[in-house]
Each structure stands twice: as structure tokens, then as C-alpha cells.
Write a structure and sequence with these properties.
Layout: H1 46-53, E1 70-73, H2 74-80, E2 86-87, H3 89-94, E3 108-111, E4 121-127, H4 129-137, E5 141-144, H5 159-174
Parallel strand pairs: 1-3, 2-4, 3-4, 4-5
Length: about 180
């Protein structure tokens, strides 16, 4: 059997043609005049356009300050690396353990799932307490990653307004009232 020999089981239903005389005469079920009565009219669904117009809560272009690290298990590291290896997050990407498609700064957290018997030095990663214990028990080192907290800068006062206010104060202080002269 080939593609040109395939045929559908059901017959095609012809589209109902409205406005050609007969039962659905006059306005043909479209009401009277206006854009909705014309052929080829295209109006967006009302509800959808209203919903799409307004961003809701935090889901619309919201970048959270809370990062989520990529998780790696000890069992995977045990399989992929040799004894005495010095491991960085870029090595995890090269071995195909972790993916970093957007090229951002990669934060990796190592969890204690599985056992480790090799002496490995793992750098610039976060660890669960048990994972750190297991790595050190096997004779390796777990060098932690120091994460900087986001710095919140205080808002600057507008310089122009502050200068104007200072000038007003100076004018009030400097200008002595003119003495009244009697005639």
C-alpha cells in the first residue's frame, strides 16, 4: 500500500453555503450590516484579548531573585570521573552531566544519593550536609561556592528638586525686608 492509495473511511461534508438564495435568505443569519455581516471579517475573541492585555500577578516577565541550582547526585559523579579528579561545574557540562543551554552562570548542588569511594576534589558547588560528609569520608574535598546576595541600592533623591528647594530657602533667609520710609 502506498500513500496515494489511502482513502478516508468517512465522506467529506460540504460546507453550508449561506446567502445564495433559498432558505437562509435576506441577512443569511448574520444580522444587519456592519463589520460582522461582511465577508472575510476577522475579529479577535473578546474574552481572550481582555485576558491577554493585563499581566497577572508575578507570572508575566517576572525574574525571581531566588535561583534554583542544578542538582547532581554523587552516584553520577562516581561513575563519570576517575580517582583524584579536580571537578568544576564546567567539567560537569563537558561530561554531559549538566546542561547549560543559555550560557548563564551555572550553580550546581550535589546531593548524597548513592555512594562515593573515589578521592575527588569538587569545587564551586553547593552541597547537602550528607553529601559533604560522604565526600570527605572518601578522602576528597568539598570546596563550597560563595554566593553574593543581591545588593539593593538606595534610591537617589532627585538633584534638581533638591537644588530648587535649597535656593528657595536661601532667598528667604538672605532677603531682608525693605524698611518703611515715612513721607
Amino acid at each position: 500500500m502506498q500513500i496515494h492509495q489511502l482513502k478516508p473511511k468517512t465522506k467529506r461534508k460540504n460546507k453550508k453555503r449561506v446567502g445564495r438564495g433559498g432558505i437562509k435568505g435576506t441577512y443569511s443569519g448574520k444580522g444587519a450590516k456592519g463589520q460582522n455581516a461582511r465577508s472575510g471579517r476577522k475579529l479577535p475573541p473578546i474574552v481572550r484579548s481582555m485576558i491577554k492585555r493585563y499581566p497577572k500577578l508575578r507570572g508575566y516577565r517576572f525574574n525571581s531573585l531566588n535561583f534554583k541550582p542544578t542538582i547532581v547526585d554523587l552516584s553520577v559523579i562516581e561513575k563519570k570521573f576517575e580517582e583524584g579528579a579536580n571537578i568544576f561545574p564546567k567539567d560537569l557540562i563537558e561530561k554531559g552531566i549538566v546542561k547549560n543551554p543559555l550560557g548563564r552562570v551555572l550553580v550546581v548542588k550535589i546531593l548524597a544519593k548513592g555512594d562515593i569511594k573515589k578521592n575527588l576534589t569538587i569545587n564551586e558547588c553547593l552541597y547537602s550536609n550528607k553529601a559533604k560528609e560522604k565526600i570527605e569520608k572518601a578522602g576528597g574535598k568539598a570546596n563550597t561556592l560563595k554566593i553574593k546576595e543581591p545588593v539593593v541600592k538606595p534610591k537617589k533623591k532627585r538633584v534638581k528638586k533638591a537644588k530648587k528647594e535649597e535656593k528657595k530657602i536661601e532667598e528667604k533667609v538672605e532677603k531682608p525686608k525693605p524698611a518703611k520710609t515715612k513721607k
